[in-house]
Amino acid sequence: MGRASKGRDVAAATPVVILVRPQLGENIGMAARAMLNCGLSTLRLVAPRDGWPNEKAQRAASGADIVLEKAEVFDSVGEAVADLERVIATTARNRELAQRIVTPRQAAADMRGWIGQGERVGILFGPERTGLENDDMVHADTALNIPLNPQFSSLNMAQAVLLVAYEWITAGDATPPSRMADHATRPATKEELQSLFDHLERALDQSGFLRNKEMRPSMVLNLRALLQRAEMTEQEARTFHGVIKFLSKSKHEE
């Protein structure tokens, strides 16, 4: 996809994304882009290896400048989470710590609930090479594990941010799971579908397709049901009328 225009800040209360000891500016920028794609804009960095600000991060953000401009830098995880009531830590490995472990989907639901109650929430993401250490994990009350191929579960930091952020935005999204693309045309009415079917039935009678009197009733019903299932638009119904008219005219000219 092409480069988008500069994104706008997010007004609603959202989780804080905390990147712990990120090593590459490019990953910070891509994480910022993923955040803004999913409605998150509050970024905190803990001891970024190459310092801050970072030109490579800005280039990789592809327009998510507002996230980088607002980003705060901390020396330790403890300082980065000090003002938060809830902290979730992402991890790909089993730990010695006894913590509640959730999937990204459950974490998103939990975060929606906590933020709805006025609590401030943060998500910790570990450095690219090692992930979070136990000293980082102890600052979290919940661990998040992304279910992936157990033989290959390593994720780039920005990929992990995108997966968790996507679950966050979908948890509050009301988009229906399936819909027809409208393309500026409305669905056909039942009257229009009936008119189309009448036209089709006349054409099929004239062509001799429905000549079998015993089979005709079931064939007519099946064709009618097919047109109903098609969920035609008004434009599609008019196009189908034109197809029937053309085929009927071609048949007469033979």
From TrEMBL:
<feature type="domain" description="tRNA/rRNA methyltransferase SpoU type">
    <location>
        <begin position="16"/>
        <end position="166"/>
    </location>
</feature>
<dbReference type="InterPro" id="IPR029028">
    <property type="entry name" value="Alpha/beta_knot_MTases"/>
</dbReference>
<dbReference type="InterPro" id="IPR004384">
    <property type="entry name" value="RNA_MeTrfase_TrmJ/LasT"/>
</dbReference>
<keyword id="KW-0489">Methyltransferase</keyword>
<dbReference type="Pfam" id="PF00588">
    <property type="entry name" value="SpoU_methylase"/>
</dbReference>
<dbReference type="InterPro" id="IPR029026">
    <property type="entry name" value="tRNA_m1G_MTases_N"/>
</dbReference>
<comment type="function">
    <text>Catalyzes the formation of 2'O-methylated cytidine (Cm32) or 2'O-methylated uridine (Um32) at position 32 in tRNA.</text>
</comment>
<dbReference type="InterPro" id="IPR001537">
    <property type="entry name" value="SpoU_MeTrfase"/>
</dbReference>
<keyword id="KW-0963">Cytoplasm</keyword>
<dbReference type="GO" id="GO:0032259">
    <property type="term" value="P:methylation"/>
</dbReference>
<protein>
    <recommendedName>
        <fullName>tRNA (cytidine/uridine-2'-O-)-methyltransferase TrmJ</fullName>
        <ecNumber>2.1.1.200</ecNumber>
    </recommendedName>
</protein>
<comment type="subunit">
    <text>Homodimer.</text>
</comment>
<keyword id="KW-0819">tRNA processing</keyword>
<dbReference type="GO" id="GO:0008168">
    <property type="term" value="F:methyltransferase activity"/>
</dbReference>
<keyword id="KW-0808">Transferase</keyword>
<keyword id="KW-0949">S-adenosyl-L-methionine</keyword>
<comment type="similarity">
    <text>Belongs to the class IV-like SAM-binding methyltransferase superfamily. RNA methyltransferase TrmH family.</text>
</comment>
